[in-house]
Design goal:
Shape: globular
Distance between the termini: 25 Å
Largest sheet: 2 strands, antiparallel
Number of helices: 8
Structural class: mainly alpha
Length: 127
């Protein structure tokens, strides 16, 4: 997966069963989103701590500049970032898929992974 570029991963996300969760404007808890992805909520929390917090531009867009507290709910953009990590790490096949793959992917693509770009992508491909 590390050799795939952003358009390929975005295309894969649109084909995944969880893409309906990106269409919704409502908030989901971490447990609900983790259940949809088929991962444990602790895994999702670990990705936030070990991956998202390592990429400052993504971190500020994900958590917001005005606060550093984690909300108990995830908005559509936050679910999108977690979905990107899920696909970049190889989905449920997490063997030999270290966090570095996802971190490098986010670092290489942070400029196109802003909230406004997500909204454009969501309107064009997911809806």
């Amino acid at each position: 997966m590390s050799h795939e570029d952003l358009p390929a991963i975005l295309n894969r996300i649109t084909q995944e069963s969880f893409s309906d969760g990106l269409k919704m404007d409502n908030l989901l808890t971490r447990k609900e989103w983790a259940n949809i992805l088929g991962i444990h909520r602790y895994t999702l929390g670990r990705w936030e701590k070990d991956i998202i917090e390592e990429v400052n531009p993504i971190k500020s867009a994900y958590f917001g500049n005005e606060r550093r507290m984690r909300s108990p709910y995830l908005d559509a953009y936050q679910r999108f970032i977690i979905a990107l990590i899920f696909v970049a790490k190889g989905g449920l096949d997490r063997k030999n898929k270290p966090h570095k793959i996802a971190i490098n992917f986010l670092k290489m693509n942070f400029s196109t992974l802003k909230r406004e770009h997500f909204e454009q992508w969501r309107q064009a491909y997911v809806n």
